[in-house]
Amino acid sequence: SDRVFASMRVAGPNPAMLERLTTLDGRFPVTAAQYQSVMGAADSLEQAMAEGRVYIADYAVMTGALNGTYGTNPETQKYTYAPLAMFAVPQQAAPDRSLLPVAIQCGQFPAEYPVITPATGTEIWQMAKTVVQIADANFHEAIAHFARTHLFIEPFVITTHRQLAPNHPLFQLLVPHFQGTLAINYAAHESLVAPRGGVNDLLSSTIDNSRVAIVKGFQAQGFNAAMFPRQLRDRGVDDGVALPIYPYRDDGLLVWGAIHDWVATYLGLFYNSDADVISDRDLQNWAAELVAFDGGRVQDFGDRGNGKIATVAYLVDAITTIVFTASAQHAAVNFPQSGIMSFAPAMPTAGYVPARSIAEGSVNWFDLLPPLDQAQSQLNLVYLLGAVYFTKLGYYDRGHFTDPRVAAPLQAFQQRLQAINAIIDDRNQHRPVYDYLKPDNIPQSINI
Ligand code: MN
């Protein structure tokens, strides 16, 4: 349904795609009449944009991606898509202000791909929504999941072990959030994101091109832009009046706040001033290796993005980002794999007809969907990847922290996480259930 399709943008497997649209983009010429055909004559596209109620999901990064194949003898063609999708929130007086889909264009160039709305036709609209789901599944696995959580954390794992002594307070704080990450990343590199691996079989593109998408997606966002509150601001989705229903944002901010306070209190035990940070040579060597070309190649890291940590405040934001990404952000994108993503008709990982054939009306919805054996392979793989829960956020091994001053702030952190569990349980009474950022469901590290 349109309602569930829209909810995928704010509570689905890839909940960080939506951006506020304030002016019409020439690539996506949705008309005022098309907008009103969905949102009603009392609303207008111009007014909705002025009020910040219009949002876009733009899969431009997939433009020109090479179409993959699956199977041998014969090989079956798969197709990649780079659609644009417009969504809007009803006016402030409306009784239900859930996000709604307004229009979809199945490729980036309007001369080749017409704007499709619910009024275009029931089956064409259904296929256009599925094209967006397919593009979103590809963006999700390559970029939101693998690049921006698994690969994002890896240089921090290596550099922390190389540059910090085991009794350094930062080593003690970070290392539990790295457990299992190198092992799962190596397994992914060896067998999953590999020739003849699951990514090659199931995603739309060739394995080489999926790897390119992973790198492009990784490089498109530096470290400082990955900080959760800044991400929300940069995408223009931090306004709770314009976009009232956004479970990923609202639950994520609670968890971010809890991690931020824990990290600030913990680091405050060891760093009393910015001068303490600047004069910690191990810490500065750690930061320098993270950004070095022959080191971690982390982009835009440090107060000024230059690999130097100058303030306690920045150190707290940076460490919060590492812990949040290794725990909450990964949970938000990893565990929906065994939910909605395991049901191929709702979120196929590849399409099987060219996007241009959809508006021509020469194909039907079943032609677009994966063959049964591919749907079963998708179920097998993503169910496994989304079903392994190992460790729980905030629960470190007994005796892990050797400094007795850590006990009180750690207990406060755990109590705060328990309170957030209760808040989210309550929220779920009044919205479609979103459980992925409940602290009880968030592991300490990326280990699957
Ligand atoms: Mn994962």
The kinds of small molecule bound in this structure are: manganese (II) ion
Q: Helicity, in percent?
A: 40-55%
Radius of gyration: 23 Å
* Largest sheet properties: 5 strands, antiparallel
Instruction: Return residue spans where pLDDT drops below 50 for at least 5 consecutive residues.
Output: none
Distance between the termini: 31 Å
**Strands of the biggest beta sheet: in what spatial order?**
1-2-5-6-7
What is the strand content? 5-15%
| Helix and strand composition category | mainly alpha
Task: Compute the number of helices.
Answer: 17
Mean pLDDT: 97
Shape descriptor reads globular
How many strand elements? 7
Could you state the order of secondary-structure elements as H and E? HEHHEEEEEEHHHHHHHHHHHHHH
Describe the overall structure.
- With about 450 residues, the chain is mainly alpha-helical.
- Helix content is about 50%, strand content about 5%.
- It has 17 helices and seven strands.
- The strands form two sheets. The protein has a five-stranded antiparallel β-sheet with strand order 1-2-5-6-7. The protein has a two-stranded antiparallel ribbon with strand order 3-4.
- The longest helix is centred in the N-terminal third of the chain and has 42 residues, at about 120-165.
- The radius of gyration is 23 Å and the shape is globular.
- The model has no long low-confidence stretch (mean pLDDT about 95).
- The structure holds manganese (II) ion.
